[in-house]
Amino acid sequence: MRTPLLALIAGALASVLFTGVAHAAPPAYSPVLTKNAIYKTGKLELKECAEQPVNGGDLDGARVYLVFLLDCLNDSWSQQLAKKNIPFSKPGLEVIAKPGARTACGRFPEGAQALYCPKNKKITFLLDQGILAEPFELFLMEVLAHEYGHHVQQLTGMLKIVDRVKGKSKARLYDESRRVELQAECMSGAFIGSVWHSLGRRDFDFRYIVTTAQNGYDYASHGKASNIAWWLKRGFDAESPNVCNTWAASKSKVS
Ligand SMILES: [Zn+2]
Fold it and tell me: Is residue 182 in some structural domain?
């Protein structure tokens, strides 16, 4: 896989989060973030999501893979939210072939693989020639399940709360961005872990994407590579969003 994992998810929430004005002493995190009902929903119930192999250079095949996978994500998370009577709606999905496309959250940023826009609840996924040359389905799954994690954050009221608090310092904005991103990473791992045995893959494949995350870049907005790998594996092992409360995590785990 030529694209570093971090580049895959970079930039996704920048336009949503970095809208505050510098100010001292921001308020504590909202209970919507620290005590959200999603942390009490247990294991994801969906255990089957057979992958459709993607051939090199096959844009339509890769698109079909994502659409199929999105159905699995919809099934899995709609069941999960129903456990706590949280209203569910499906996100949109648009596949683009190059960066710069217009989204409801501004232009699709260079260097990102996908983004989620809360304004219209839509995932935009870049399938450019670089990724299509050597498609690795599990990476596509990891990225789509991460963006879906942002959709879950939107449905559970978390993204709205993060964005609403004004007067935040730059340090606070980065802190919140990392907690949002690492939580999405954990939710991605939870989904992959829950359907893992239906994928017919060897454990090496998952270790490979964790190692790739571990060896990636550190980003102030997304967290250290070691923490991204840690949250991804934590979700995978638990198969549950119960362990994805980045808002109650120690600073060292969200640095
Ligand atoms: Zn993200």
Answer: yes
Contacts of 173 (CB under 8 A, 6+ apart): 17, 18, 20
Weakest-pLDDT range from 25-34, 57-66, 241-250: 25-34
How remote is the CA of residue 14 from the centroid of ligand 1, in Å? Answer: 9
Distance between CA atoms of residues 178 and 106, nearest Å: 21
* Ligand 1 center from residue 182 Cα (angstroms): 8
Q: Is 30 part of any domain? A: no
Classify residue 36: in a domain, yes or no: no
Q: Domain containing 83: what range? A: 5-20+50-254
Report residue 194's pLDDT band, with 50, 70 and 90 as the boundaries: very high
Which one, of 215, 254, 252, 10, lies nearest residue 111 by Cα?
Answer: 10
Cβ contact 72:46 at 8 Å: yes
What is the pLDDT averaged over residues 238-248? 97
Would 247 be classed as within a structural domain? Answer: yes
pLDDT at 27: 66
Residue 6 pLDDT > 60, yes or no?
Answer: no
Query: Using alpha carbons only, what angle is made at residue 18 by residues 121 and 171, rounded to the nearest 5 degrees?
Result: 130
CA–centroid distance, 252 to ligand 1, in Å, is 19
Question: In total, how many domains does the chain have?
Answer: 1
Q: Is the dihedral of CA 239, 244, 250, 255 positive or negative?
A: positive
Return the closest-CA partner of residue 153 out of 71, 244, 252: 244
Q: Give the model's pLDDT for residue 51.
A: 86
Q: From ligand 1's centre to the CA of 158, what distance in Å?
A: 14
